Amino acid sequence: MQHTIEKRNIAIHALCWGLIIFIPAILRPAEDVEERALHTLRALGPTLCYMWMFYINYMLLLPRLYFKHRRTRYFVENVILIVFTLGLYSAWWWMMSIVLPDMPRLGPSSPVIAAMWQVILFSLMAALAMAIRMSQYWKYNDDLRREAEKAKSEAELSNLRSQLNPHFLLNTLNNIYALISIDPEKAQCAVHDLSKMLRHMLYDNQHDFVPLNKEVAFIKNYIELMKIRMGQNVIITTQISTVEKSATPIAPLLFISLVENAFKHGISPSEPSYIHIKITEEQGVITCEIRNSCHPKNHNDKSGSGIGLEQVQKRLSLMYKDRHEWSRGTTSNGNEYFSIIKLKSNDTEMRNS
Predict the structure, then answer these.
(1) pTM of the predicted protein model
(2) CA-to-CA distance for 45 and 113, rounded, in angstroms?
(3) N or C, which end of the chain is more exposed by having fewer CB within 10 Å?
């Protein structure tokens, strides 16, 4: 890739200088071919001087002095370079006056004004080299910054996965452990459902994005697992309105922390409770809406470490920057907690995952 970029830059430079050398001669209609050739030859010297000023700055002075914070030396050497180039320029015109004595000299008649004009042009060549180099320098630094941010994001996501899987597994195993003493047959079913979820976590969670239909199936298995130990006082409803076998890419295990949170804080062993889970997909927007009765745990309850929702926020910021909305909180009467996440999908994510 870098080799291709360098070839393209060389071609652009060659084209620009070729236009500068040959276009003025071609556009002189009053002269024949021989006169045009002589005019091109005469203009070749000044053009070579401009090229000399440009590339000495572009390839040597700027990278070795200016970008190394040796600014004073850079400007001093540029003054010396301008004086030297002005000497080359004068020598060229002296030689052309001998070779082509009949060709009129263009430009100001005063040598002093002509020299001042050339100093300005040489300075502009140095400034042009600086402008191009600076733009490349800023782009290079910006690319490095983006790569560093991407590496940091990938590292954070990897760290989040390493925290999320044990966190989820610990809560689920605690549920199965409690179920074994109550109903061993249901505990066997729970282990079977858990094996399905672990398969999803082992094979699909290693990708940045998974098809929506697999993630929905995972959430359904989890809900069925949790239903096994629920009492008669708990109402659980689910509404899944997604495209059948939807391959829309979504970050794996993104919604499961919200579902876990609903079961942890929305269920009371003595009071009527409910959990309503709704997942929809419409016009490229995936919405997960969860509403549950609010029964927050007391301070003595140590179940869970509370990292689930924090992880959701971090993953949304890293993977859905500027493409998500998340509203959450309790209703005015404090009896219901709601969490609504809207994600704008991007098909290119699936191809890059």
Answers:
(1) 0.53
(2) 19
(3) N
